[in-house]
Hints:
Layout: H1 2-12, E1 20-24, H2 29-40, E2 44-51, H3 57-72, E3 76-81, H4 84-90, H5 95-114, E4 118-120, H6 125-138, H7 142-145, E5 151-152, E6 155-156, H8 164-173, H9 190-205, H10 209-238, E7 239-242, E8 245-249, H11 250-253, H12 259-267, H13 275-281, E9 289-291, E10 295-300, E11 303-308, E12 317-320, E13 326-327, E14 333-338, E15 348-352, E16 360-364, E17 370-371, E18 381-382, H14 383-389, H15 394-398, E19 401-405, E20 408-412, E21 416-417, E22 430-435
Parallel strand pairs: 1-2, 1-4, 2-3, 4-6
Antiparallel strand pairs: 5-6, 7-8, 8-11, 9-10, 10-11, 12-16, 13-14, 14-22, 15-22, 16-19, 17-18, 19-20, 20-21
Amino acid sequence: MLTNFENHISARFAFLENKKLFLAVSGGLDSMVLLHLFQQLDYEIAVLHCNFQLRGLESLGDQDFIRNYCEENNISLFTTQFDTEAFAKDYKLSTQIAARELRYSWFYELLETHKFDYILTAHHADDNLETFIINLSRGTGLNGLVGIPEQNDKIIRPLLPFSREEILKYAKEKNIQWREDSSNASDKYLRNKIRHDLVPVLKQINPNFLKAFQKTQSYLQEANEMAEDASIMIYQQVAKEAGEEIHFDLNKLKKLPNYRSYLYEWLNEFGFLAWNDIYDLVDGQSGKQVFSAEFRLLKNRKTLILSPIVEVSEKQEFEINENDHEVNFPLNLKLCNVSHITIESNKIIFADAEKIQYPLVLRKWKEGDSFQPFGMNGKSKKISKFFKDEKLSLIEKENSWLLCSKDEIVWVVGIRQDERFKIEKTTKKILKIELQ
Length: 436
């Protein structure tokens, strides 16, 4: 196995040469074999061990076992302890997910503080098969069927091509000691049920099932890469990025025979769960929305708009005093007195300074607000009606700010000035206000 492992590292991970590597070691069979293999190769390594405090004295025994091993072999060791059950309870997570969150957060912290390059874990081919079956049983897309990736950012899994049987054989040949995790014998967890009950049946049906699975998964990986390439090309035709928003052209999207698959690929990373609701938006009523924890998807006429959720109180107001020449929050505004008008733009207004009463106030619009749009002499219009006529989306309405002098609107910022504050022949002082 050592020769095959060395060849695998050279073929797939040649970039690890001369890098500083952390090995995540639990003390179990797989991680102890990974550690032993890297001891035979010429790499700078250190060991990471997490004590999740889930098995009492057994967990402490694992920690002592690894500490003794590292001392005997002159290997640097980093250990930590987590109150995993309390963390899981506080954040409403399963114990396994909580342990994963704690583990990887600590891993990345150590990478940064100790200037190491990569973290290697001992996931192997049987782990990959179990993950595939778990994802299959839950209903997953192609991403879930390609299994555990060989590399995910700074995390590398060099044992993935090797089976549990190969790892066990190597451990016995090299007289490698390891610790048995008593929880592995329990069928409390879904993974253990699959490992103990389902996988043996599959291997009984086909003794070469694991190799056949690995071949199938390589085909799935190729298909997934091809789908990702297509997704990128189609995204460039359908989507347009505008600041923090992404606008999807529904006319172009609906011409695609598998547009739901593309939507899933593009939106999956934003935490959405209500996929049927998202698909219904395509033909739904304008103004309907679907939310994830941090993002929302809005149907606005012939467009789907993806944007982050920004919480700003409608009651919140920001004052601008007469001596303020720059404002940096919630908008970037520049104010100055000028002698004449120089440019026309929605980003700039020129107001009669003598009509302005300080402090000016920046606030969100509310129902009942009205103003006189520039060019409409003597005619007022409700802000809500103005937004509708301008065909602003719900997101654009929510992101709109009003610049007010006392109770009068001077400017719907970035959109339209109020007629009452315009420059006239009798104007003596001109105030220029620019949205940066």
